[in-house]
Specification:
With about 130 residues, the protein is an alpha+beta fold. It is built from three helices and two strands; from the N terminus they run αβαβα. Helix content is about 25%, strand content about 10%. The radius of gyration is 19 Å and the shape is elongated.
Length: about 130
C-alpha cells in the first residue's frame, strides 16, 4: 500500500530528525538491498552507537536497554563485525578468512557435518587449505 509506506517513511524520517531518538539513518528497500542489508525489507532503521532495538510492543519510545548486542547496525561499519573461529582436523592454524558473510556460517557447519542445507543463500566457507 503506497499510502501506508509513505506514512511510515514520513514517521521514520520525523523520528530520525531528532538525534535524541538514536536513529542514525533510515534506508528504503533499494538502499538496503544495495549494501546487502535485509533484501526485501521496505525500510531499514540503523541505530546510532549506544542505541538498541527493544522488544516492547508498548510504552515509551526510549527506555534503558536490558540487553545489548542487538541488530540495528549496517554491515558497512567495521566496528560491528563479529569474530568467527574454526578449529579442527584439516583447518590450518592461523588462517585468516578475512571478512565473511555471516550467512556462510550455517552452510559451513552443514558441509563439515556432511548434511544438506538446501535453503542456504550463501556458499560454505572453505576452511581447509585445499578446495573441498
Amino acid at each position: 500500500d503506497l499510502k501506508l509506506r509513505q506514512r511510515v517513511r514520513d514517521g521514520l524520517v520525523l523520528l530520525a530528525a531528532d538525534a535524541a531518538n538514536g536513529i542514525a539513518s533510515v534506508l528504503d528497500a533499494n538502499q538496503a538491498g544495495g549494501i546487502g542489508a535485509f533484501p526485501g525489507a521496505t525500510f531499514v532503521v540503523e541505530f546510532a552507537p549506544g542505541f538498541y532495538f527493544g522488544a516492547a510492543l508498548g510504552g515509551p519510545l526510549l527506555s534503558l536497554a536490558s540487553s545489548r548486542g542487538m541488530h540495528g547496525y549496517l554491515p558497512t561499519h567495521p566496528d560491528m563485525h563479529a569474530v568467527f573461529y574454526a578449529k579442527g582436523p584439516g583447518v590450518p592454524a592461523g588462517r585468516n578468512l578475512g571478512v565473511i558473510d555471516m550467512r556462510q556460517i550455517a552452510p559451513t557447519f552443514a558441509a563439515v557435518l556432511d548434511v544438506a542445507l538446501p535453503s542456504a543463500s550463501e556458499p560454505a566457507l572453505t576452511l581447509s587449505a585445499q578446495k573441498p
